[in-house]
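Target chain:
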Amino acid sequence: MTSMQHKFGALDLIRAGLQDLDKARTLFDELHNDGIDDDRMRLLLTTLEKACDPDVALSNLVDIIKVVQS
């Protein structure tokens, strides 16, 4: 059974500075599907709070992971 703890609420995403909540949820789902565990997801969300543009940072991270995996 897959853990659903990685699903963040809207307030969690907004607090981290994310603007496009639907895209952020999709990207977090991709990370989860790539094997990123819940603890790292929570750490990532906390780290995004410090980024100048959390949406771009999250998107770039997912792109980097895809390149590394291929």
